[in-house]
Structure formats: structure tokens, C-alpha cells
Write a structure and sequence with these properties.
elongated; single chain; three-stranded parallel sheet; alpha+beta; 13 strands; five-stranded antiparallel sheet; Rossmann fold
């Protein structure tokens, strides 16, 4: 999801635990909407990882404005320009020419990727802190075949090897038992 609205007091679930699990899995923005309005509750929510905290009762227009603000902040992490360029950290990915350059200090490296490696890189770079499950990567980046989920591992391994050759280490990060995250 692009954003999660989360209550602390839910039947059968503890909102603090849900928030902790969401943070463990990725960086999806979370706004707490809850009846708990004490300072200690607000501080707990923000310390556990909420991006914003709103106590009930609230003005719906304010919630919409807060959602838009959080989404604006989270969208700044990745710059996808109208001319087809994605800029993320040291990467510049040209969607039109399928060219990828990586800046490592003063050096700029042009990299060559297979179509599948390029698709994987682009898909993950568009949501760099999100955990991408193997099955999702399979459907998004290898839609034309009967490939298995472990095929994704092979392509990611080759992608990672090419990045390591130019000094980019640990991208994409492996999230054990789940898949990959572009940035750790």
C-alpha cells in the first residue's frame, strides 16, 4: 500500500505490534488514528515508527491534508522525471534508452543489464524502501514465461554482481524468506 491508517485499539490486534511489524517489513508511511490522546501515546507511536499521529475526534479535511503531506514526503525519495529518468541515490535510470549510470564518488559508471535485470532494477527503484516479494517481482518483471519464484533470485544475484563491480554493495538487500528491498 502507499500509506496505512492505523488504530492502536483494534479487536484481536495490537496496533503497536502491527506498526512494529510494518516497520520491520519496510517503510510504508503510517498515520496513527486513535482515541489514545495522551502525550505518552503520541510519543510511543512516533518512536515506534509512525509518520504522523492524530487523536480522535478529528476533522476529515485535516486527515486528507496530513495524508497528502506524508505522501508528498515519501514520494520525494524517488525522483521520476517527465523525461523518463529515475534518480535514486547514486543511480540514474533512463527508461527510454534503458541506460543505467551509477555515481560512486567522483566516478560515473555506465552499466549494461539484460532486459529482466533492468526491469527488476526499475521496479524496485520506484519503491526503494518497500519489500518486494519474489512473486510480485516475478509477475512484474517476468510476465511472459513460466518462470519460478527462484528464477528471480538468479536474476537479482546477477544484478547485484554487476552493481558490486562498480562499488555498490548490498543493493538490492535480501529480506530473508520474503524477497528484496532496493535500499536497506
Amino acid at each position: 500500500p502507499d500509506l496505512v491508517l492505523l488504530d492502536v485499539q483494534m479487536p484481536k490486534l495490537d496496533g503497536w505490534q502491527v506498526l512494529s511489524e510494518l516497520r520491520r517489513r519496510g517503510n510504508t508511511p503510517v498515520i496513527m488514528l486513535t482515541a489514545l490522546d495522551q502525550d505518552v501515546d503520541k510519543l510511543t507511536g512516533l518512536r515506534v515508527g509512525a509518520d504522523d499521529y492524530v487523536a480522535k475526534p478529528f476533522n476529515p479535511a485535516e486527515i486528507v491534508a496530513r495524508i497528502q503531506a506524508v505522501l508528498r514526503r515519501s514520494a520525494r525519495a524517488v525522483v521520476e522525471e517527465p523525461n523518463g529518468l529515475i534518480r535514486q541515490g547514486p543511480f540514474e535510470i533512463d527508461l527510454r534508452s534503458h541506460e543505467v549510470t551509477v555515481r560512486n564518488g567522483e566516478q560515473v559508471h555506465a552499466l549494461n543489464f539484460t532486459l529482466t535485470e533492468f526491469r527488476l532494477l526499475v521496479h524496485m527503484a520506484r519503491a526503494p524502501r518497500q519489500v518486494h516479494a519474489r512473486v510480485d517481482l516475478l509477475h512484474a518483471c517476468l510476465p511472459e514465461g513460466d518462470a519460478q519464484e527462484r528464477t528471480v533470485d538468479s536474476h537479482v544475484s546477477k544484478l547485484r554482481r554487476k552493481l558490486e563491480e562498480v562499488g555498490v554493495i548490498g543493493i538490492p538487500a535480501t529480506i530473508r524468506g520474503v524477497g528484496y528491498r532496493f535500499l536497506d
